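[job 0412] stage=fold_complex status=start
inputs:
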Amino acid sequence: MDIPLCYKCHTEKAKYKTRLQLVCEKCFITNIEHTFRCTIKNCIFPKNGEPLLICVSGGANSSCLLHLVDTCNNPLKTTKMMKFLPTILYIDDGSFYNISTNQTEAYLEEIQTKYSMPIIRKTLEELAPDLYSRLPSNPQPRADMIYLEIHNQIVNIAKQNGFSKVVTGESASRISAQVLSGICKGSGVSVERYANSCIELDGIKIGRPMRELLDKEVCIYLHLQKLSVLTKLPISVNPYPTPTIDILVQHFLQNLQSKFPSTVHTLLRTASKLVPRPLEGTCSICKGPKDEPLCPLENFVNKDETLCYSCHHLINP
Amino acid sequence: MIQVFVDFSGGLEDLFGRQKELQLNIEEMSLRQLVFHLKDKHLQMKPELFVTGDGLRPGIIVLVNDTDWELIGKDLYQVQGQDRISFISTLHGG
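[job 0412] stage=fold_complex status=done
writing structure:
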């Protein structure tokens, strides 16, 4: 089969098809790194000498984030070096995903050798000692509570260590799945926060510089750069063998994206246009806006007034 | 018979007994047939994460000698000797 030439350089044969474009390996890597550099400047604009906290979980997205930060910041890898001061934050939640300590240690040793950045390492058990006892057995609220606890702790650690800017590794595919699954779980009032390129919590700016990259692009980039990841399979607790809402929505979007390649970006762009409702009060769990009852019947439900609708159902599944 | 190398990553290795790489001696076949061969002979758990009724589950990237299978005919591609076929799952954590 004749393979066409790359759409960009018109010299090398195309090797990958992303977003309906056929691109060679070199142009693919250049595109990814250029897109990342533009997005990190637009969302968080790290200045020269400014400390920046890079949140790494060991998964594919954050491992890719770490490598891309290094390519922006390393004089050996780029002539247009950005001069912020990155520090890695690794919150070890391996015990919730059955990841052995050896795997975690091997991963951390590798990233320390490769990137020469300082690492702040904490375990989720030391940050939230009572979390395990509070976790419900149902896998969906369990995964949600772990996710929310980690993000709250990220803000606390940033404040304690003097960081005003943090970046996390959510990709376009991940954000669009979060938007849809958030609506399914009753947190529609917070959806515009998921879709924003940068949000502010307690004075800390949290940017998402990977938000323009699809999961396919992230995975191919990881493969080409031969980066290792910690594989965390989705939480599945017997007797609930069925997947969570998040997994079902991800599968649904992957299926749709394979047939209609603009799905993820259309969803992302539409969600970015949402305007937040002016609401008073903040939920004490997710730190998002606290929505008001839409129906008078909700007033009869025994509801914690400090929680939004979604978090109320999180702790009362 | 031809010899091919199959890689798994992104969590797929867990479905194949934590093997990241397989070296196979197989008859000449298409990629679609190879997928079902892997499912029948090597897959150890959760087949629904690897195949659907029609073929490979959406969300799994296939690279043949580091080239996207979408450029070489997808599952109709005839596997050749010494090919390296990489299966990468995009269902991953962040």
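[job 0412] summary: Chain B is about 10% helix and 30% strand.
[job 0412] exit 0
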